[in-house]
Write a structure and sequence with these properties.
Layout (H helix, E strand, L loop, with lengths): L1 E3 L9 H5 L11 H10 L16 H10 L5 H15 L29 H11 L21 H13 L9 H13 L5 H9 L5 H11 L1 H14 L5 E2 L9 H12 L4 H10 L7 E3 L5 E3 L6 H4 L1 H4 L11 H15 L18 H11 L2 E7 L3 H42 L3 H8 L7 H14 L3 H7 L2 H16 L8 E7 L1 H5 L2 E4 L7 E7 L16 H9 L7 H14 L20 H13 L4 H9 L12 H11 L11 E2 L2 H11 L31 E2 L8 H5 L14 E2 L2 H9 L1 H17 L4 H13 L5 H11 L6 H9 L2 H4 E2 L1
Parallel strand pairs: 2-10
Antiparallel strand pairs: 1-11, 3-4, 5-6, 7-8, 9-12
Helix pairs in contact: 3-33, 4-30, 7-9, 9-26, 10-11, 12-23, 15-16, 17-21, 24-25, 24-26, 31-32, 31-34, 32-33, 32-34
Amino acid sequence: MFLQNNEPKTNLNRTQMATKKGGTGAFACPERARQAERTIPYQTISPCISLSKSHKPIYCMLFSRLGSTAFAAAMLCSSMLCFSLTQAQPPAKAPKKSAVKATTPPPAPPSSQSDDQKFAERAARLWCLQPVKRPDVPAGLTKSTNPIDAFIAEQYRDKGLQPAPAADRLTLLRRVTLDLTGLPPAPADQDAFLTDTSAQAWDRVVDRLLADPQHGVRWARHWLDILRYADQDSGMPAASGIYLWRDWVIGALNRDMPYDDFVRAQIVGSRYKEHSTLTATGHRQKVPGPLEDQFALGFLARAALTPDNSEQDLALNSVETISTAFMGLTVGCAKCHDHKFDPIRQKDFYAMKAIFDPLVVKRVVMATPAEIFANGNELAAYRAKKAPLDDEIETLVAPYRTKLYDERVAMLPPDVQAAVRKPEKLRTVAEQKTFDDYYPILRIDASKIKEILPPPDLEKYTALLRQQTALGAAPQLPSYWTVEEDSALLKEPSYILTTGDPMRPEKDHPVEPGFPFKPESADFREGRREGFVDWLTAADNPLFARVAVNRVWAWHFGEGLEKSTSDFGLLGGTPSNRKLLDYLASEFVEHRYSMKWLHRLIVTSDTYRLASRADASVVEANAKADARDTYLWHFRLQRLEAEPIWDGILSAAGDLDTTVGGKSFQMLKPGETSNRRAIYMSRGYVPSTDVMANFLLSFDVDDGRTPCPIRTQTVTAPQALFTMNDDAIEKATAKFSSRVLEASSGDIRSAVDLAYRTTLGRAPTGGELDSALTYLANDPARMKGLAWMLFNLDEFIYVR
């Protein structure tokens, strides 16, 4: 059962697997894989949900008596329904042969147009490539002075829609606080807003939230989803310092860095528009950006999956991510052939790849000379302790490893055996690649050695490994990875790659640096990336501002004005309100790409402040013209993402650490936890081990291998199992109940009121209060059960 699935979920990574270098078949093209994502249902396994004995009576009584529907209870019903609704439907029966009349289509008339002419005509017809023209704001349709409401009201009139009323003040406060900071409003904030009856009360709330350092934390998560942030990705070399890129994004958003500078810094390593300057002697030199912008290049460094970038992942991934995130185009669909729908040629893809081909990853150590010398001494001492253990282990296991290795080699084809047995320095490039490809099969892990060791040797081996582990890891200095241009690679030509395989360059199809829709005036004299980013961030680029404001709109409302936020091409359709989109894009440029200006304009509109519910008569009338709420006659009900759910639980318990920045943490082992915000929870993918906590996976967090424009919103049994039975919930409920009892000086009625306001942002209704007091029976010990119930209400994880 899915509440929303506006864009294909990338967690299963069908697109990436289907477009693996050299891939063929039904999903070899990313666009076909994306279409398959829309039609292949996700299987939802529905295990039996069990409640602990202590929770069953609480759950049954409170669910039956309290006004709000318990989320946990909904799971009990919906989990089985979810399983049945998401099964693949049986394929339709093929028509009988006799019913099919074989016809031969007439041959297509020969075309006198060149391919370039055809693509130029397709580009001229594509709406997103038309210049952005600021439309006049409709007049006389609304009392609101916010231009957004005027454009929305015009569609109400044209479609015959009646908007829902405004939401109540506390609903609005919870909505905007979670939206802008990812945290629930504190009871003190609720009191302050209710008592402020001035016309500027809402504006003051918005300004306070935008100035809060937690705003950058919240919105960095959105941007990092689309930019493929991951703490680990197989052999990604940038893993050790990748968190610094995340911290740079948080800081940039908190400072309201102009969006064009935000993008420029992550592509060229400097936010400045000026790339070079002349010295007094007439020598041209590069203008260095702020030192912190070097951390922004973690965006490009993250694209490399090996230190030597032998598979050209850096360039390939950079093209696909940049074109998706900042251009709103599926340029990746032209990796293997010309785009089937949009005016993007295969040579456009590889011309854009040529911009990034000269880049290599580089490790930068963050230490003073004294720290470097001290680390050298520490490392020497560590190796002196470890060397005898290594020698003893090697002497013990060498015969067994050799035996296992020879057995595996003997099973390989003769030509592979020959390459494997040859000394490394004597192998050809092709033979070395063969060896590298087979290495995962030939690698002998410690677990395999243990399986064949005799008991005495096994006991000795285990003891030695224990001593080795006790030494810990080698002392390392903090470092991060960045990118730089290699002067030798700059001189090498770039080619179209057959099926995207770096080992199959088409030497007869060289390409020059470029990009889709490159104008004749494009200038690469300052550098390849510099020339590209100048075009990308130009005020007259019809894609840049449109894609940005549409993304921000989608993150506020759950769906963009252009529904497919990363595909402004033919398959993405057209915007539901083109005039509003173009107005926002033109004003975004006029306001120097201020993202906080855009947030403020959106959340201060009457449209944003509509209720999510309306009278039955209004719903019935509007449903005939707009059942999907495309034209926003009410606010869309949205499920919170994983991060605000986690943060809300810890915040209610009074245990949330809101420190901004720092390394990521993992929650993989039983009892392993942290009280930091969930943006710092490790995510990524490694084939041989778990990287992401089950909590993140349950609540639809992607692993960062492909861009995630909008999170999929599912309702599944594992989500309910977490909120009902996880150790983190048990600890949080205990702290939460103690906190509200202490704050209310033991008064049960006041404690119930505070518990509701802390978790749901509102006071309990009369019926809810009576039911809660009846259950508690004036026993403070039972407050933990009430706390547990509040975490399991659907209202806790949804925004109305």
